[in-house]
Amino acid sequence: MPKLEKRKIRVLLAKAGLDGHDRGIKIIAMALRDAGMEVIYLGLRRTPEEIVNAALDEDVDCIGVSLLSGAHNVLFSKIASLMKKKGLTNTFLFGGGIIPEDDIVRLKKKGVAEIFTPGAETEAIVRFIEGAIAKRRSTRERPF
Amino acid sequence: MPRKNEEKIATEKNRWLQKTVRPGLNELPERLPAFTTVSNLAIDDPLSTPADVVDLEYGKDLGFPGEYPYTRGIYPTMYRSRLWTIREFAGYGTAEQTNRRFTYLLKKGTTGLSVAFDLPTLMGYDSDHPLAEGEVGRCGVAVDSLWDMESLFKGIPLDRITTSMTINAPAAVLFAMYIALARKRKIPLSQLGGTIQNDILKEYIAQKEWIYPPKPSLRLITDTIAYCVTHLPKWHPISISGYHIREAGSSAVQELAFTLVDGLTYVDACIRAGMKIDEFAGRLSFFFNSHNDFFEEIAKFRAARRIWAREIRKRYRPKDAQSVQMRFHTQTAGCSLTAQQPHSNIVRTTIQALAAVLGGTQSLHTNSMDETLSLPTERAVTIALRTQQIIAHESGVANSIDPLGGSYFVEALTNRIENEVYAYFKKIDDLGGMVEAIGQGYPQREIAQSARWYQQAVENKEKIVVGMNEFTETEEPIEVLKIGPEVEKQQVRALRERKKTRNRKRWEASLNKLKQAAASDENLMPFLIEAVTAYATVGEICGVLKEVFGEYKEPALF
Questions:
Q1: CA B264 – CA B315 distance, rounded (Å)
Q2: How many domains does chain A have?
Q3: Which of A18, A23, A117 sits opposite B135 (nearest CB)?
Q4: Confidence check: pLDDT of B121 > 50
């Protein structure tokens, strides 16, 4: 078996929606960086179009979106469908915020890989991303 | 000399540590390798004695309630004459829905109103703006125009109740609507009491709901303050807020330091705008967080009053005693609540509310147990309200003024917080003041680092959060308030219908005049009042001002 040289995991983080609560996403950005990932943080109030276009430009492995305003049903669905439309099939979407359980079920059906809610540990988020990417890379065997 | 006595106590304490404490520690060591507050302030000393407050001079550092430096409270009789105002922050859905919640709260014994606006309103967008999609009425009440304001306060006597409005970048616009509403009801403006938050600096620092760059934003603030000086003497035109700084993850010291520097920045701006210190300083108000660490919070509130009184006196030499008195609202810490075992949040809130009362707050909001999950249900908000009533009427803590004053520990902690706040004053001064410091991302970075520290402390169990990282269990979900998508549809439809009924000439003229005034240095309040009276919307008005003022852009740093 040829040994694949692994590139660093690239993560795009953004706040969607109008709320300015960036405490969580900044902590996650720091934790992912400390775990050896490359983090691109877009900042506050990014539209679905801006997020998906940035993901294309930056060639990221995953997109993490934080949203605490209550607009998650509208915005996560939009991001997920734009990702499909623009062919971002090798990139997955995960999210975080104050999101009720039944909405999480609905959003997962629409293509959101995972949603983290208050109390989630940064370690768990790191493990989730690493696990999901390892799974994808082993099935794709895309050499870097 | 009293100092001799304290030296003796210090020697005796050393003896006590060696002879009495140490032998027992082998058998029963301390529980933790290090004791810290929730803000990571070290509590190394197990016992405070008079030796820890050896430099405290009663008259100079504490004084009497209602007298300089107000450490023990700003009123001579405090809660013995009048309890703090029970002011529950409320707002969701349409103005009609929130009006029903207000009426409910008043019936249950709340003594002041506090309006939570939705995010489009807070950002100066109308409900039909593309960026408002999915946000209308979710985090607060949707207010697009004076029509909504009329529904919001239907049946509520504006001259007999005080209203606080949490609104910042578009504060002057919503304030203009409140004034226009009072005028329509023929209530003299001099009778209106209440508060607008109107604190943009903490938006750049922490809450992040800004519109314009700092300079025009400060001008809007000095315009509202100047307008109140002349027309609304009972109104608090600003509520300088540490609450959001703390929620963003700061320590107690950072919360206080950044808020006080913000306050001094506003005072400077008012003086530069031509006002005299005694005209406005007595109308400034503050807003703090009350977190879990009981004594740290109490010490913070006491230090806050003392530093403010001293700094205003030293820097501006006011003649009126009111000018140096810090009055403040408190809200218990939303960020301390857990989504796990939400009923435990009732207990957290009780402890925090008690700290606010022992710290001498003028008004108080207690969070509901379900607020990490959604806006509160009626049932949850009633328990929050009852919490305050129990503290007020059953606990006995309101019988005596500043009952913790003189506690060696509390006084020493008050001094320590004061010293650490002054260290931040110096750092921010060295950076060229708060506006400069914000431009360099300094307070934002300090807060993010504190937030990271706390998260790590929770994850490695240095800090225990009951129900989250210890004493966990699986449980049934509780009932939460749901706001359906029909609210947005209804609000957008109403907005579009109502726009058609406006007097187009008057509406257009009012916006043109506003634009001209914005480009000059005239006070904008009369122009804003005319525009809202002509039913110009929040989005239209903020749009006109954006054309003149431009927009703030934040560098996305972490």
A1: 9
A2: 1
A3: A18
A4: yes
| C-beta atoms surrounding B64 within 10 Å | 15
What is the pLDDT, as a whole number, of residue A144? 46
Quick: pLDDT tens for A65-82: 999 998 999 999 999 999
Task: Indicate the residue type of A5.
Answer: E
Take residue B515 and report the two structure tokens written for it: 């634009």
For B236, the 3-state DSSP assignment is: strand
Is the Cβ–Cβ distance between B392 and B398 less than 8 Å?
yes
Sign of CA dihedral B486, B487, B488, B493: positive
Q: Tell me the HSE value of B497 on the side-chain side, using a 13 A CA sphere.
A: 8
Q: Do B459 and A69 touch (CB under 8 A)?
A: no
Mutate to test the interface with B, among A13, A15, A18 (most CBs of B within 10 A): A18
The three-point CA angle B258-B413-B406 to 5° equals 125
Nearest to B134 by CA among A83, A18, A49, A66: A18
User: Quick one: pLDDT band at residue B481, thresholds 50, 70, 90?
Assistant: confident
CB B121 within 8 A of CB B170: yes
pLDDT tens for residues A49-62?
Answer: 999 999 999 999 99
**Domain extent at residue A18:** 10-138
Mean pLDDT score of chain B = 96
Q: How far apart, in whole angstroms, are the C-alpha atoms of residue B313 and residue B67?
A: 13
Residue A143 lies in a domain: no
Shortest Cα distance, chain B CAs vs residue A66, angstroms: 14
**Letter string b/e over residues A89-122, b meaning 16 or more CB atoms within 10 A of that residue's CB:** eebbbbbbbbbbeeebebbeeeebbbbbbbebeb
CA B547 to CA B529: how far, in whole Å? 19
Q: Which two tokens stand for residue B190?
A: 């001099």
Query: CA-to-CA distance for B308 and B264, rounded, in angstroms?
Result: 9
CATH of the domain at A51: 3.40.50.280
Name chain B contacts of A101, Cβ cutoff 8 Å: 477
- Which CATH number is associated with domain B59-394+401-459? 3.20.20.240
Partner A contacted by B443 (CB < 8 A): no
Given a contact cutoff of 8 angstroms between Cβ atoms, the answer to whether A127 and A35 are in contact is no
What's the pLDDT band for B243 if we cut at 50, 70, 90? very high
β-strand pairing of A92-96 with B285-290? unpaired
Q: What phi, psi does A103 have (nearest 5°)?
A: -70, -35
Concatenate the DSSP letters of all residues of B400-450 into one string: SSSTTTT-HHHHHHHHHHHHHHHHHHHHHHHTTSHHHHHHTTHHHHHHHHH
Provide φ and ψ at B318, rounded to 5°.
-70, 160
Residues in B closer than 8 angstroms to A42, CB to CB, are 556
CB B248 within 8 A of CB B204: no
- Structural contact between residues B370 and B342, judged by C-beta atoms closer than 8 angstroms: yes
- Does the structure show a pLDDT above 90 at B452? yes
